[in-house]
Every structure is written in C-alpha cells, then in structure tokens.
C-alpha cells in the first residue's frame, strides 16, 4: 500500500535507506548530500535501524570503510557530492575491481573550480569509467525508487558491482515535492537479505581481497570485471519489472517521452528532463513532433537501445550537464554520437553543454533547443555540433 | 565462484579468474612454488643442530617444518633464501653462501 | 497547468523564507495538491538575500526551474525592496505581500510601478505579540494563504495545527504561539 508524502530528494533517499536498513554506513558530510547521513543518523539514534553508522574523517575514509565493510560481508554504502567524490577516486576503482556490491548516494554538484555548491554532473561524469553502475533521477520519486532497487542490482550474482544512485543537487535534493513511499515491510521484502558467497568474516573459508596482479593477469582481470557490467542492463530491467509489481511505477534503461513519432529529440539526464517534458507538451500542442529520451542507466551505457529509439529521428540534441574539454562537447554527447555511428543512424546530432554550476534551465530554454533542431532539420546540416545553452555571450 | 588455484598461471584465460580476483580459501600459497625466486639457499648441517628450534619462528615463509618436536629438512619449494635462519642459529648448523 | 500557482519568496538568510516555502508546500500537500517548495542557494550566510519558491497545482509538477514570472511574491524583509528586484516578472493579475510596519502608500513608490494588488502585514508586531519572538515566516505564511486563497482559513488552521502538533509534540507552548500568530495574521493582512 503506497503512502503519499511530500519530501525533499535527500529525505526520500534517507527514508529508502531506513527501510533498507543497511549494515554499515560510514559518512563524511558535504553539501548538498549532507542531509542524507544527517537524517540517517537520527534514524540510528532513534533505534529505527540497527546500522553501524561510522562518522569518519574524510570521503577517502568513508569509501574505504564502505569497501572494507562490503568485503567483510556487510551491506554498506556512503553518500557524497562533488569534491567528496573526487576524494574517493582511488577507492571507486578498488570497489569496482574487487567486485564489491555497495551503494553510493550521490547528490550531483559541480566540481571546483571556480568553487560552486550547485548542480551539474561533472562529479559523477568524471567517475563514469570507474566501473560503477550509474543511475540518475529526474525527481525525488525516482531517486527513492532507484535507491530501493540499488542493492538488488548491485548484489545480483551476475553483476556484483558497486552502484551510484545520482540525483541533482539542490534541484531535487532540497526541493520538497510529492512522492509515494512504499511500506517498510514491502521494501524489506523486496530488497531481501544480503548473502554473499565469500566474505572476509566467514571463518569457514578465509579470503584474500584485492591481490596484486602483475601484467600477466591485469588485463584478464579487467576483462573479467567487464563481464559483470555486461549483465547489468538485463538485471536492471528484471529488477524494474519486479519493482513495478509492488509500486506500480515502471522503469527501463531510459524513459522515452512522446517519442512515438518524434522527428526531433533531446537526450538528457536528470531534473531538467521534467522541464523538457513541459516544453515538449507545449510544442506538441502546436503540432510539433518532438520527444525526449531521459537516461536512467548511464553506466553501462545502453548504446544500441538508444540508437534504436532514435532510429526515426531526424535531428537530436544531446544535453551534457558537464564539460568534457574534448573541444567536441561532453561525455553523453560522445556516447550518444558513437551509438548513432555504430548503428549507422541518420539523425543529425548536436551536443549542448548546459546547466553548469546550477545554471537554471527553463522551459523556454528547451523550446529554444527544439527550435534550433528544427533549423538543423530544415537545412539538413547540424552546423556547429558543440554548443552552449544559457550562456551569456 | 571459488578459485581453483591450480588453474592460476600465466596461461589462465580471463574466464578462469575469480570475480574481483578474490582468493577464497586458506593456505593457497602452498600451491605456488615461490622457492624458485632465488638460487641461494641455506644448508642444514644436522650434526651441529641441538634442536633448539630458534630458526623455526624466524622463517618468513614457514619453510622449516617441525616434526615430532624436531626440525625437519628445509622446504626449498618455498624458501626464498633470505638467510635469517642462518643468523638465528647459535650453533652454526645453518650455512649459506654470502651470509655469516 | 492552468491551475498552477507560482510564488516567489524574497528573504534574508536566517529569516525562514525557505522554511515558510516548505511549510506552505506542506499545508498545500495536506489539502491534496501537488507541490514544490525549494530554495535557491547563493552564499550560505545569515543576512544574505535568498529566494525560495513554491509551485502548487492540481496536476503533477515536472518543471524544475526557478520561477521568473510568479503570480505572487512575498517579501520577508522590506530592506529587500531596495536590494532586490522583487517585482521582476510579477504578473499584474497577481499580488505582492510585504512584511512592513509602514502604510501601503509608503511602500508603493518602491514597487517600480507594479500594477497588481499590494498587501502588507506587520509580521514583527504579530510575531512579538503572539510568540514573544521574531519569526516573520509564521505570520507571512498565513497572510499568503489568505492573499492567494489557496485554501480557506478553517482548513489552513486545522492543517497547520496538525502539522505543528506533530513537529512540536514535546513543546505545546510553541504550538500555541504559532497558532495564535497564524490566526492574528489572517486578520492583520491588509
């Protein structure tokens, strides 16, 4: 039985974590993710969870402790943002390469500099090649739902990889919006017990974690790791299907919004997708065939599925909330364009950098993007493919 | 999947490695003959040995077995020739080239 | 989305503009609405001008941008009439609510020719009389509910009482003072 509520994205994720009741939560605060461990600490103090909550001295330590706990056989996680994630860099790769299932509640915030506390995706985009599964949310509901599904994906025997559940700093993390929560027992049952096959605290079978791999083994080890990633998409879909049966909310690898006959499309990640939907509805009322692909699963990247979804689209704008400094655009742009190339797609594609450091994105901005796509379609030429949106020029 | 250490070697294919390269199970180092990493080895002169067993605990590779309260022959499959046992022996019962 | 109400709050850090926006979202949610309440963060320090926003609607709210052409504006600190462009984009069929002890006529020259309705309330007086402390956001919350007509007074007071009773279960005197401030503000807004 769903429970209607109104919560900020941070509260929503904290409540999902209370319902999951993980074993170990090491935490170090950083804006705008601080509220997650803050709310969670009150659940610990109130005895609503029996999680071992460890205040540590840095993000390097919080991720190290989460990794250690996971290796020991515990269900663990931490939360962070921006420079906190950057400070975990070394550990991110260790968690993934050791095939340790654990979660990171990431609240996206721009990386310095200039120093800035607001939303963009430069923090998590930099971690896109670390071997973590990455999932993004449009709003508090999706952040909550993704968190509830996280461990089922991460701990799946075919996957066993850490998972990053991302939401937009302040825009969703600090905005109170309507939400439907699941009952505690429903979440508990859905998430289930964590029963690792091997773990450090198993006296029956001692284990070594993270052995040195010389050149003779390193490449085989990395290929072996990639195999886990190959199973993620199917597991994400299976878990989503089961989640739908308890929540009534459907999820895929990405969401297609009014794409059925779309000639022009936007591909994007995060909270601005909601704004884009309102822009699309306005334009659809005028008879314009426009649509949206909102990425939910970014790592691994559902390239062929996205290329298929864009098959009949004539012009597409890929929106990056992070710079790539390739002189070509951002990371999502590169991923989508290479997907189109491999699928021999015909869509004319451009890549926009937008929303850096919390720069606001309005419905009118997105209408402007669709207008630019119209021109591209009419001229049959994408023109400059590396563009900025909402920049003072 | 648990590691079958006998398969681990430079010919192991990527599918034969464990997930995350974890090694589940104790004592797997026995399966690796790391003794070949060095050519200099200590030599045991049994006549001089008083069975004080001082050499046993100092060996970093546990290469000095104790059987029936008596020290046995060196396990050269795992001895890396560090020479610590030579230094530990008060009776000159262990010798090694270059170690005094 | 014709039923959408958009409100912008102008305050200074520490005055509770964000809290007021969240409380308004809260009480509107209790009456079955879809809501958004969110702050725009600049430098996080006491006294710095801050903005907070509300969207309240009968249908799902998806837009995640700030509000540029609000129907209503609430000015929590009247010094912001000079420091911020409080009437920017404000729709003339809407209204502005200002916390001030001054008469409306004295305020009008600071509103850059705004043609819509102008309301004032002396939140300082209300707050001090009802609670003995200066929390401008409580009276302003009641005042904006009255100005917008989002819900009737009875519903509003009932929902707020329920909300306060939940939040301050161990401090009944806080509930009493806040409720008195809300009731008084409903009468005082002009």
What distinguishing features does this structure have?
heterotrimer, A: 393 residues, alpha/beta, Rossmann fold, six-stranded mixed β-sheet, five-stranded mixed β-sheet, 16 strands, 41% helix, globular, C: alpha/beta, Pyruvate-ferredoxin Oxidoreductase, domain 3, 6 strands, 39% helix, 20% strand
Describe the fold and architecture.
The complex is a heterotrimer of chains A (393), B (100) and C (190). Chain A has helices spanning 9-20, 35-45, 59-72, 82-86, 89-97, 122-126, 140-154, 184-191, 215-230, 232-247, 272-285, 303-309, 331-342, 363-379, and strands at 3-7, 24-27, 52-55, 77-80, 103-108, 133-136, 163-168, 176-181, 207-208, 254-257, 264-269, 290-295, 297-299, 315-320, 348-353, 386-388. Chain A is of the alpha/beta class and 393 residues long. Chain A has 2 domains: 3-246, Rossmann fold (3-Layer(aba) Sandwich); 254-388, 3-Layer(aba) Sandwich (Rossmann fold), CATH 3.40.50.920. In chain A, the strands form 4 sheets. Chain A has a 6-stranded mixed β-sheet, with helices on both faces. Chain A has a 5-stranded mixed β-sheet with strand order 4-5-7-6-13, with helices on both faces. Chain A has a two-stranded antiparallel ribbon with strand order 1-8. The relative contact order of chain A is 0.12. In chain B, the strands form 2 sheets. A two-stranded antiparallel ribbon of chain B has the order 2-5. Chain B has helices at residues 55-58, 84-88; strands at residues 23-24, 43-44, 66-67, 70-71, 94-95. In chain B, a hairpin with a 2-residue loop joins strand 3 and strand 4 (70-71). Chain B has 2 helices and 5 strands; from the N terminus they run E-E-H-E-E-H-E. Helix content of chain B is 9%, strand content 10%. Chain B is elongated. The longest helix of chain C has 17 residues, at 172-188. Chain C is globular. Chain C has a 6-stranded mixed β-sheet with strand order 2-3-1-4-5-6. Chain C is of the alpha/beta class and 190 residues long. Chain C has a single domain (5-188), classed as 3-Layer(aba) Sandwich (Pyruvate-ferredoxin Oxidoreductase, domain 3), CATH 3.40.920.10. In chain C, helix 1 (17-30) packs across helix 5, helix 4 runs antiparallel to helix 7 and helix 5 (137-148) packs across helix 7. The mean pLDDT of chain C is 92.
């Amino acid at each position: 039985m769903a429970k209607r509520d109104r919560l900020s994205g941070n509260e929503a994720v904290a409540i999902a974590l209370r319902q999951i009741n993980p074993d170990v939560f090491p935490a170090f605060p950083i804006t705008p993710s601080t509220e997650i461990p803050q709310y969670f600490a009150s659940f610990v103090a109130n005895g609503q969870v029996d999680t071992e909550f460890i205040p540590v001295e840095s993000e390097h330590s919080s991720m190290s402790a989460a990794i250690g706990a996971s290796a020991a056989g515990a269900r663990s996680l931490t939360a962070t943002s921006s420079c906190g994630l950057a400070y975990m860099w070394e550990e991110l790769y260790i968690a993934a390469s050791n095939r340790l299932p654990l979660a990171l509640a990431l609240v996206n915030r721009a990386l310095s500099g200039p120093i800035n506390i607001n939303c963009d995706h430069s923090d998590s985009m930099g971690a896109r090649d670390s071997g973590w599964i990455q999932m993004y949310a449009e709003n508090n509901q999706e952040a909550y739902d993704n968190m509830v599904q996280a461990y089922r994906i991460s701990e799946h025997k075919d996957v066993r990889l850490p998972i990053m559940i991302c939401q937009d700093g302040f825009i969703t993390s600090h905005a109170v919006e309507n939400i439907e929560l699941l009952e505690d027992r429903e979440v508990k049952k859905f998430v289930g017990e964590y029963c690792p096959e091997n773990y450090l605290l198993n006296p029956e079978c001692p284990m070594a974690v993270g052995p040195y791999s010389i050149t003779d083994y390193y490449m085989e080890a990395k290929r072996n790791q990639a195999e886990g990633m190959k199973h993620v998409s199917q597991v994400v879909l299976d878990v989503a299907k089961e989640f739908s049966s308890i929540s009534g909310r459907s999820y895929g690898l990405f969401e297609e919004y009014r794409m059925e006959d779309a000639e022009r499309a936007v591909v994007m990640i995060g909270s601005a997708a909601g704004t884009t939907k309102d822009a699309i509805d306005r334009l659809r009322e005028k008879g314009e065939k426009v649509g949206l692909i909102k990425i939910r699963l970014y790592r691994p990247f559902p390239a062929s599925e996205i290329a298929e979804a864009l098959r009949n689209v004539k012009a597409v704008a890929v929106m990056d909330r992070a710079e790539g400094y390739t002189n070509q655009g951002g990371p999502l742009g590169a991923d989508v364009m290479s997907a189109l190339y491999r699928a021999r797609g015909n869509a004319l594609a451009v890549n926009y950098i937008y929303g850096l450091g919390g720069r606001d994105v309005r419905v009118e901005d997105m209408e402007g993007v669709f207008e630019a796509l119209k021109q591209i379609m009419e001229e049959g030429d994408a023109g400059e493919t590396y563009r900025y949106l909402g920049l003072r020029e | 999947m648990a590691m079958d250490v006998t398969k681990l070697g430079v010919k192991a294919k990527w599918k034969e490695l464990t997930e995350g390269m974890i090694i589940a199970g104790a004592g797997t180092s026995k399966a690796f003959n790391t003794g070949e990493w060095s050519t200099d080895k200590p030599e045991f002169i049994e006549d001089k040995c008083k069975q004080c067993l001082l050499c046993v605990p100092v060996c970093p590779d546990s290469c000095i077995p104790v059987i029936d309260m008596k020290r046995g022959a060196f396990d050269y499959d795992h001895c890396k020739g560090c020479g610590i046992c030579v230094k530990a022996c008060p009776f000159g019962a262990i010798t090694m080239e270059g170690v005094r | 989305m014709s039923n959408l109400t958009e409100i912008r709050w102008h305050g200074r850090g520490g005055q509770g503009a964000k809290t007021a926006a969240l409380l308004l979202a809260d009480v509107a949610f209790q009456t079955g609405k879809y809501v958004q309440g969110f702050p725009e963060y600049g430098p996080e320090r006491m006294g710095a001008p801050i903005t907070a926003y509300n969207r309240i609607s009968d249908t799902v709210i998806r837009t995640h941008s700030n509000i540029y052409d609000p129907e209503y504006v609430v000015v929590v600190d009247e010094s912001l009439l000079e420091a911020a462009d409080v009437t920017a984009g404000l729709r003339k069929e809407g209204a502005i609510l200002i916390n001030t002890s001054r008469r409306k006529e004295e305020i009008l020259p600071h509103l850059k020719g705004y043609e819509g309705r102008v309301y004032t309330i002396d939140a300082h007086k209300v707050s001090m009389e009802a609670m003995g402390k200066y929390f401008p956001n409580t009276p302003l919350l009641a005042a904006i509910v009255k100005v917008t007509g989002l819900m009737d007074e009875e519903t509003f007071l009932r929902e707020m009482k329920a909300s306060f009773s939940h939040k301050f279960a161990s401090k009944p005197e806080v509930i009493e003072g806040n409720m008195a401030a809300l009731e008084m503000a409903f009468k005082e807004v002009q």
